[in-house]
């Protein structure tokens, strides 16, 4: 009996854990929708700087409180002051059970330390001092090299998948981390959101520390640089700030576009760049635009940022997207993901790599938590938010042309009065796809098909919907056409 009780308790705990995981997946899906809406309202820059770093925490059913976490106290206070009401309203619309939204620093994160000397007596390469400052300092333990503070251990060159669109940036990053002196400095990595620039910066840090275990590295975002600059200014610690900043062997500054407009900080960064370059140190910057496209940056700083190598990461092409997905599958073995699902994700999620990997993770998590097999239908059902955000605008003319090519009929048959089955069925499929893939109304679709009545379009849509459920061949045709049109 005791074993039965223990077994029942284990099952219950597993069920509770599964429910918690499923709730986390659902919260993440809701946040993806909310974040996308806020991006449209606030614009790319404000969204990237303040909304994008938010992590969704737990939800308390008893109090109706949802926790939102940010990485620093500064950013948490900023979002609380300026966006709390908007975030609360968005969550209440998405989930009626959310009554309160609490914005705070993630309890697992360290508070933002001050970038200053302790008392001047500590050795320059002391590991404790570096950790206290949030600096990257390599250490050699009994098992060899260990990861550094401030660098994500999963973001290495080994985990970076290369293709034609990112090979230049990857090779330049590896050269920057090599033992020999690089031919160029600074390295400026330009890439849109989610294409891998931050991954390369962390990879440089790891590789450089492996080659130079006692090296001093500072990795930060432009926001972090700004916060610590202001802190040093307020606390009359600018001499210490400058001395510490210019003592690094490798300086990595991410999202440099957010330093725009801060004249005093720009000046300090300019002097730091000059000092480090004069000593042969290495500098890497990353931004979502080229140096010449940075508004509000004074000419002297602009020239320093662009004087080395500007390496561009283009949007991942379909071959690279396939390689990235296949590389991630090893983490989920022995779970099987059919090839048609990988192809569907690679062709459909095209905006950035982060969304692509996030879509795969969400799909597999849902399948594992619900006990379902990963399939094309499950992907279409569970990734609607990501798929709709990536779906390009498709026209009825494009649908008609694709359907006619698929069924090998003349384009004029889309508007003809012929009633032969070989013509009627493709026409009905085209009407169905027009309703699914475009925002056009039934009457608007009817006019595109030879001025047909809206009731004819409604009949076609319902007929194809029914046939997809009963006829595997018809369902296969429609799926194939959807893939062609959405690729």
Automatic annotation (TrEMBL):
Signal peptide: none annotated. SUPFAM superfamilies: P-loop containing nucleoside triphosphate hydrolases, TrpR-like. ATP binds at residues 194, 196-198. GO terms for biological process: DNA replication initiation; regulation of DNA replication. It comes from the Bacteria. Residues 368-487 are annotated as: Domain IV, binds dsDNA. Residues 183-311 form the AAA+ ATPase domain. Keywords: ATP-binding, Cytoplasm, DNA replication, DNA-binding, Lipid-binding, Nucleotide-binding. The keyword Transmembrane helix does not apply. GO terms for molecular function: ATP binding; DNA replication origin binding; lipid binding. It is found in: Cytoplasm. Transmembrane segments: none annotated. Residues 1-124 are annotated as: Domain I, interacts with DnaA modulators. Residues 395-464 form the Chromosomal replication initiator DnaA C-terminal domain. CDD domains: Bac_DnaA_C. One of its GO terms (cellular component) is plasma membrane. Oligomerizes as a right-handed, spiral filament on DNA at oriC. Domain I is involved in oligomerization and binding regulators, domain II is flexibile and of varying length in different bacteria, domain III forms the AAA+ region, while domain IV binds dsDNA. PANTHER family: CHROMOSOMAL REPLICATION INITIATOR PROTEIN DNAA (PTHR30050). Belongs to the DnaA family. This is Chromosomal replication initiator protein DnaA. It comes from Qipengyuania oceanensis.
């Amino acid at each position: 009996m005791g074993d039965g009780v223990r077994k029942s308790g284990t099952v219950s705990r597993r069920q509770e854990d599964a429910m918690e995981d499923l709730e986390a997946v659902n919260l993440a899906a809701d946040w993806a929708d909310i974040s996308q809406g806020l991006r449209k309202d606030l614009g790319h820059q404000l969204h990237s700087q303040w909304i994008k770093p938010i992590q969704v925490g737990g939800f308390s059913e008893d109090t109706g409180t949802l926790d939102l976490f940010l990485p620093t106290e500064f950013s948490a206070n900023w979002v609380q002051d300026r966006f709390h009401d908007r975030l609360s309203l968005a969550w209440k619309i998405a989930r009626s059970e959310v009554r309160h939204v609490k914005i705070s620093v993630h309890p697992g994160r360290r508070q933002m330390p001050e970038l200053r000397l302790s008392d001047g007596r500590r050795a320059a390469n002391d590991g404790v001092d570096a950790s206290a400052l949030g600096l990257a300092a390599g250490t050699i333990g009994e098992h060899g090299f260990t990861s550094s503070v401030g660098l994500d251990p999963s973001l290495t060159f080994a985990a970076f998948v290369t293709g034609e669109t990112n090979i230049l940036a990857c090779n330049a990053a590896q050269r920057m981390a090599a033992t020999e002196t690089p031919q160029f400095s600074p390295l400026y990595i330009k890439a849109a959101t989610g294409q891998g620039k931050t991954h390369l910066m962390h990879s440089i840090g790891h590789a450089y520390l492996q080659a130079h275990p006692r090296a001093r590295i500072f990795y930060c975002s432009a926001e972090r640089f700004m916060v610590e600059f202001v802190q040093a200014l307020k606390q009359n610690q600018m001499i210490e700030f400058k001395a510490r900043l210019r003592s690094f062997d490798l300086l990595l500054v991410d999202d440099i576009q957010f330093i725009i407009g801060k004249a005093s900080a720009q000046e300090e960064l300019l002097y730091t760049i000059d000092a480090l370059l004069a000593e042969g140190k290495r500098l890497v910057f990353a931004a979502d635009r080229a140096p010449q496209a940075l508004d509000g940056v004074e000419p002297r700083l602009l020239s320093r940022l662009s004087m080395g190598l500007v390496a561009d990461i283009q949007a991942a092409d379909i071959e690279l997207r396939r390689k990235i997905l296949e590389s991630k599958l090893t983490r989920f073995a022995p779970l099987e993901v059919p090839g048609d699902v990988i192809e569907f994700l690679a062709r459909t999620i095209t905006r950035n790599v982060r969304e692509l990997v996030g879509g795969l993770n969400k799909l597999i998590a849902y399948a594992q938590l619900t006990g379902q097999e990963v399939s094309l239908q499950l992907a279409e059902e569970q990734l609607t938010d990501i798929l709709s955000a990536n779906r390009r605008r498709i026209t009825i003319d494009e649908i008609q042309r694709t359907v006619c090519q698929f069924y090998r009929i003349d384009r004029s048959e889309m508007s003809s009065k012929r009633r032969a089955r070989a013509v009627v069925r493709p026409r009905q499929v085209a009407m169905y796809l027009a309703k699914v893939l475009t925002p056009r109304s039934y009457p608007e679709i009817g006019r595109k098909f030879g001025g047909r009545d809206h009731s004819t379009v409604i009949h076609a849509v319902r007929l194809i919907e029914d046939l997809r459920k009963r006829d595997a061949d018809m369902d296969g045709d429609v799926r194939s056409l959807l893939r062609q049109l959405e690729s």
